[in-house]
Design a protein that fits this description.
It is built from six helices and eleven strands. The chain is α/β, with parallel strands linked by helices.
Amino acid sequence: MMHKVEARCWAVLPAAGKGSRMGAELPKQYMVVAGATLLEHSLRALLRCEQISGVVVALHADDTRAAEMSIFQDPRIQTVLGAEQRNGSVLAGLDALMAQAALRDWVLVHDAARPCLQEHDVMRLIATVTANETGGILAEKMVDTVKHASADARVVRTLDRATLWRAQTPQMFRLDELRESLQLAQAQGLAVTDEASAMEMAGYPVQLVAGSAGNLKVTVPADLPLAAWYLQTQNGILRHES
């Protein structure tokens, strides 16, 4: 009798961006919050999950900071050359995995600028996706009233928030399906803002897995104090439980 081979989980973290919306010369993934860079916090969140076999980090060609960070000595981390656009960096990470992972293994793509990711959210995503064998993403249900606006900032209509979710990361899909979907989007010149968009365009189902409000993406300077508060709160809880 042949035994089913269990698919492993891997992670890709695109970190080649310059974070221009932060208005600083330092790439935002290297900004320090709660005692560590955003990149270090994001990597630690993934490495805490024992189900993740390895993490591929896509870095800018001119990056000299990563080599100086002790976390990159972790044997589960490897680096690749990233690209100008997120899609290219993710594809570079997926290409690196092709040499060591099975085509049907799962890949979790996470933002370097989401430092507050919690282990229980990652575990819930992995458990839900693998149980249903359907790719999915962490997401948060909308609680605000949302307006659809015209180009001149006038309300066109109010959207039904009951059907709206904020997409988060990680976003978890099969290695072969995600790679082919991103390649297809790139070849067709389609603009995708996350991996789920490419999967949707390729015709794959994507399920939503409830995440935490604290899993925010640091995009503008005003996000930094809130991220610091979440991280300090989480660290306090972790110290209390250990």
